[in-house]
Design a protein that fits this description.
The protein is of the alpha/beta class and 325 residues long. It has helices at 26-35, 66-76, 90-95, 97-118, 149-164, 186-195, 213-225, 242-252, 283-289, 296-308, 311-318, and strands at 16-21, 40-46, 57-60, 80-83, 121-127, 168-173, 175-176, 200-203, 211-212, 230-233, 260-263. The strands form 3 sheets. It has a 7-stranded parallel beta sheet, with helices on both faces. The protein has a domain at 15-180 and 211-239 and 274-294: Rossmann fold (3-Layer(aba) Sandwich). Bound molecules: NADP nicotinamide-adenine-dinucleotide phosphate. Residues 21-28, 45-49, 62-64, 84-86, 88, 103, 125, 127, 154, 173-175 line the site of NADP nicotinamide-adenine-dinucleotide phosphate.
């Protein structure tokens, strides 16, 4: 059985209006599927990748057009903003630092200003990679030391939220799942390679504790509903290397483990430096929500179940394929 977090339906507000940026992204599209509920108005913002989701109004907006997005928020009047949109390609951010800062820092600043003026709860999705990755086991009060520009922008965005707002959630995680768009999360990439019998490098010098985006979505909803505020880590309970993660994916999908080769992230020639051991300790979250967080095996089992039950097909169908220019 996969691990599932269901929103607690008895405490839905009659008038919740949630605006979700990054609706076409890995987290956003799955979050909107999980969050859809008759008592909740959902507006998802996409930019270049239009999509249609049940129970959600999706609208186009370029968050870099700061005046346009403020006017839209004035019209929409949400009581919660989930800010998931970001420049997420780590090497692109390293090569385009000014643009990455505009997207990840300045856009957050603009949205936070609106939230502050309008008494709106603000939820920022952040990342385990704000830490230097030397020790792992990071808790919410560990000191971030970003080692690349993407991580630095996410840490700056966190500070903007924390400094300006009382009503906020900053949630750090590492994620995998099914994309609506034609791009591959780590687990999808592993699967695609193994299913076509291609060898892949599995990094043994890394440790992370990712969550399935669907699980994370349920957790975010519960955190909002149950009044969690502040900084939280969300993670699975079993920190593993990317090599072990690839092996576990192979086992879950009955594919050959022999295709997973041993490699070192340290030896790879990536543009941006990467932290090695970023696994997060999420005891605070488990304690606040009074739940047991899932193991990575449970998460991968659920990942497989989503495909076996047709969820992945309907999610892909939501993506309209054309690119807004
Ligand atoms: N993926 C990970 O492993 C990971 C790990 C930890 C934390 N996070 C954080 O989690 C959040 C979600 O990540 P993700 O993987 O779901 O992201 P993603 O799949 O890369 O999607 C990024 C989203 O941002 C939107 N976006 C980018 N530029 C925009 C603009 N100018 N105006 C409006 N929207 C814009 C994109 O819209 P279009 O595609 O429509 O242009 C897309 O919906 C991010 O904040 C990320 O930093 C991700």
């Amino acid at each position: 059985m996969g691990f599932q977090v269901s929103p607690s339906s008895d405490i839905y507000s009659e008038f919740d209006h949630w605006v979700v940026t990054g609706a076409s992204g890995l987290l956003g599209a799955n979050f909107l599927r999980v969050a859809a509920h008759p008592k909740r108005l959902l507006t998802g913002i996409f930019n270049k990748h239009p999509l249609a989701l049940p129970g959600t109004r999706t609208i186009h907006a370029d968050l870099l057009c700061s005046r346009q997005i403020i006017d839209s928020l004035d019209d929409l009047k949400p009581n919660v903003i989930f800010h998931f949109a970001a420049a997420t390609n780590v090497d692109w951010c390293q090569a385009h630092q000014d643009e990455a800062t505009k997207m990840n820092v300045d856009v957050t600043h603009n949205l936070v200003n609106w939230a502050e003026l309008n008494g709106c709860l603000f939820v920022l999705m952040s990342t385990d990679s704000i830490f230097d990755g030397v020790t792992g086991a990071y808790i919410e009060t560990s000191t971030p030391h970003p080692c690349n520009h993407y991580a630095a922008t996410k840490w700056q965005a966190e500070q903007i939220v924390i400094d300006a707002l009382d009503e906020y959630l900053v949630v750090r995680a590492n994620i995998f799942g099914w994309n609506a768009q034609n791009k591959l999360s780590l687990a999808e990439w592993i699967l695609t390679k193994l299913e076509t019998k291609q060898e892949i490098p599995g990094f043994i010098d890394t440790t992370f504790a990712p969550l399935l985006v669907n699980t994370l979505s349920g957790l975010l909803i519960r955190m909002v509903e149950q009044g969690c505020r502040g900084v939280f880590h969300a993670a699975s309970t079993t920190p593993i290397s990317k090599h072990e993660f690839a092996l576990e994916t192979a086992r879950t999908f009955n594919l050959s483990e022999r295709l997973v080769l041993t490699a070192k992230l340290e030896d790879s020639e990536l543009l941006a430096p990467r932290p090695l051991h970023t696994w997060l300790c999420a005891d605070k979250l488990a304690h606040h929500l009074k739940i047991d967080l899932p193991t990575i095996r449970q998460e991968l089992t659920q990942f497989k179940r989503l495909r076996d039950t047709g969820y992945t097909t309907t999610l892909k169908y939501a993506y309209k394929g054309s690119v807004v220019t």
